[in-house]
Design brief:
There is one protein chain. By secondary structure, the protein is α+β, with helices and mostly antiparallel strands. The protein folds into four domains: 146 residues, Jelly Rolls (Sandwich); 218 residues, Rhopdopsin 7-helix transmembrane proteins; 74 residues; 144 residues, 2-Layer Sandwich (Heat Shock Protein 90). It is built from 14 helices and 16 strands. The strands form four sheets. The protein has a five-stranded antiparallel β-sheet with strand order 1-2-8-4-5, with no helix packed on it. The protein has a five-stranded mixed β-sheet with strand order 11-13-14-16-15, covered by helices on one side. It has a four-stranded antiparallel β-sheet with strand order 6-7-3-9. The longest helix has 83 residues. It starts with a helix and ends with a strand. 29% of the residues are buried.
Length: 622
């Protein structure tokens, strides 16, 4: 594909070069001196001797006029071609001084289209025969509101017999290289259909279109193309798109690291300004369009720099790459503008700078993209290695936890059997005559209570592990909430402290075993940590609203100021208040309550002050 593109570029250069078959003659025999003119303040005719003394193109508004003094050192008339470039000057007028007056002898320009005899690749060519001695010629480019405000200008005198024109060959090669770059971008986008590759393709296509129109190649390949629509409207719009797409490319690289809303608003304003400028060209507001193009160029630089500055978590190497590319972008663009303003009309340095920009922008953006992809790939590899290490560590930890869990299951199983034997022996002993005398009943009761505590801790551990392993699934059934609370209160050893407040009975859909576990843990927690002989309030509730239907319960108890729990750890596993370490318990109760609530699709909250604490459990009705 690259060889084919090179062949196409060479063929395009050869097909567009203007050649003449006449024999070459020495160039030193005909010389030319160029001076720029300042338009007279009044309506008097131009006086070249006094009005044309500038060696650099003037920056003032008005027509551009260049006074040429062409000297023929031979005694014979010499055939030469006067070349005015670049092509995009809409009107070019050639005057010769005859009998003290300027006489219009040739007219050309982009506005005449590809059918004009003077139209050629890169400029406008006018053939003249210069007699011996000095001939004065005035090249005049009338002011045109549709033309760019900052333009290049060059006038050259070439040998009409030279079969090859260096500038045209270079321009043809330039177009061919741009075409090659455009094909490469198309291939890259076809391989990787990413947003960034598509924007690079659009940038290259817009650049190629600008060059085809601005160099006149479009009109030579398509003589019927409308000079107004293509040379003014489409040309201006393509320049606007080219500038805006550069900001679009930087935005694609900066946006993943950008969280500043100000940057997002600035980029939207940039794109809106670009569309306004394009619209201005379509409605003949050319002056506004060219002014906005300068504004866009400055805005792209400023907004991209701000985006880089405000980027968060951007790899440092990627930041340096984008900063360097942005500096290069500024240097190329403003170097081209300065070169155009300081031109002396006899060199093509601004054109060479613009060609460097034409190739440098897409190629630089492509290199920047490749470097960015390399940096991101390195970041990806580092992240992948870190993730692999963490995965290995997590798997090792999971395996360790599984081994501990298996050990705990084995221990609980082995402990439950002796506990059952001890409990059976206690029951038998308490019913025997020996268990009815002295301190024996109280001691047996203490032993039984300790056995129940151990059994409860084992049950809590098994339940917590089962929920984590997803081995426990809810068995939903219709339950009478009031009756469930009454049964629990009846089996409590401190039922006189439990105050149930419920108006009516209502049915709920839940897992009765898991729900009883929540209630039992919260009641046990309240009885344990409330001041002695203080009541524990239990209040079931049901919400029947149009927007929400829910049910649940609240359990509250009094609290001393020194017993206020840590809000960060109250639902954490094994958390116990520092002042309750001597009390029985495992620290699993509230953690299990939260796990069961999540398993049943509900939630648990608490409210606490220095005198009381209330736990609220709520479930959405289905």
């Amino acid at each position: 594909m690259i060889r084919l593109s090179l062949l196409l570029s060479m063929a395009l250069a050869a097909s567009l070069v203007h050649a003449a078959p006449s024999p070459a003659q020495p160039e030193g025999l005909v010389t030319m001196d160029v001076a720029f003119c300042v338009a007279p303040p009044d309506d008097r005719p131009l006086r070249a001797q006094t009005d044309c003394t500038l060696r650099q193109k003037p920056t003032q508004e008005g027509p551009l006029q260049a006074w040429l003094r062409i000297g023929n050192a031979t005694s014979e008339p010499q055939r030469r071609t006067l070349v005015v470039s670049p092509y995009y000057h809409n009107t070019v007028e050639i005057y010769r001084l005859a009998s003290g007056s300027w006489v219009l002898v040739e007219t050309g320009g982009a506005s005449l289209g590809g059918h004009a005899s003077s139209a050629s690749l890169g400029g406008h060519r006018f053939a003249f025969t210069f007699p011996a001695g000095e001939t004065q010629v005035l090249v005049r480019i009338p002011s045109d509101p549709s033309a760019p405000k900052v333009t290049h200008f060059r006038v050259a005198l070439e040998d009409s017999g030279n079969p090859f024109n260096k500038e045209q060959v270079l321009l043809g090669l330039h177009i061919g290289m741009l075409l090659m770059v455009c094909l490469l971008m198309l291939m890259s986008w076809a391989v990787e259909r990413s947003v960034l590759q598509f924007r690079l393709l659009l940038l290259t296509a817009a650049t190629l279109l600008c060059v085809l129109i601005g160099s006149g190649a479009l009109y030579l390949l398509w003589p019927g193309a409308s000079p107004h629509w293509w040379g003014t409207v489409i040309f201006g719009a393509s320049i606007i798109f080219r500038i805006a797409i550069q900001g679009w490319i930087y935005d694609a690289m900066v946006r993943p690291y950008q969280k500043d809303l100000k940057y997002l608003r600035l980029t939207r304003g940039l794109y809106a300004t670009a569309w306004i400028a394009v619209l201005a060209f379509f409605v003949n507001g050319h002056l506004l369009g060219w002014v906005l193009s300068i504004v866009l160029l400055l805005a792209v630089s400023a907004i991209s720099a701000f985006g880089l500055h405000a980027a968060v978590d951007m790899p440092p190497r990627l930041r340096r790459i984008l900063q360097a590319s942005l500096a290069g972008f500024l240097f190329l663009n403003f170097g081209g503008f300065i070169g155009m303003m300081l031109t002396q009309g006899q060199n093509n340095v601004p054109v060479y700078i613009s060609r460097l920009i034409d190739l440098g922008l897409p190629l630089g953006a492509l290199v920047m993209t490749l470097l960015r992809n390399k940096v991101l790939e390195q970041e990806y590899q580092r992240t992948k290695e870190t993730l692999t290490r963490q995965t290995f560590a997590l798997e090792s930890e999971r395996q360790t936890r599984n081994e501990k869990r298996m050990l705990l299951d084995m221990l609980t199983h082995e402990i439950k059997n002796p506990l059952a034997s001890i409990n059976f022996a206690l029951t038998t002993l308490s019913q025997s005559p020996e268990g009815q005398h002295g301190q024996t009943p109280r001691r047996l009761e203490n032993i039984s209570r300790s056995v129940q505590t151990i059994d409860q801790i084992i049950e809590h551990c098994n339940l917590a592990n089962g929920i984590e392993d997803e081995r426990i699934q809810p068995q939903m059934a219709c339950t009478d909430l009031k009756r469930m609370f009454q049964d629990l209160l009846a089996t409590s050893s401190q039922s006189d402290r439990l105050l149930l407040t419920v108006d009516t009975s209502f049915q709920v859909e839940t897992d009765i075993y898991l729900l009883r576990m929540i209630v039992a843990n919260l009641i046990d927690n309240a009885l344990k940590y409330a001041p002695v002989n203080t009541p524990v309030h239990i209040e079931p509730f049901e919400l029947l609203q149009a927007s929400r239907q829910a049910w649940g319960f609240r359990i509250s108890n009094a609290l001393t100021p020194d017993m206020v729990p840590d809000p960060e750890q109250i639902f954490e596993r094994y958390y116990r208040h520092p002042l309750t370490q001597e009390l029985r318990g495992s620290g699993l109760g509230l953690s299990i309550c939260r796990q069961i609530c999540h398993l049943l699709g509900g939630h648990i909250n608490y409210r606490c002050d220095e005198v009381s604490i209330t736990f609220e459990v709520c479930f959405e009705s289905t």
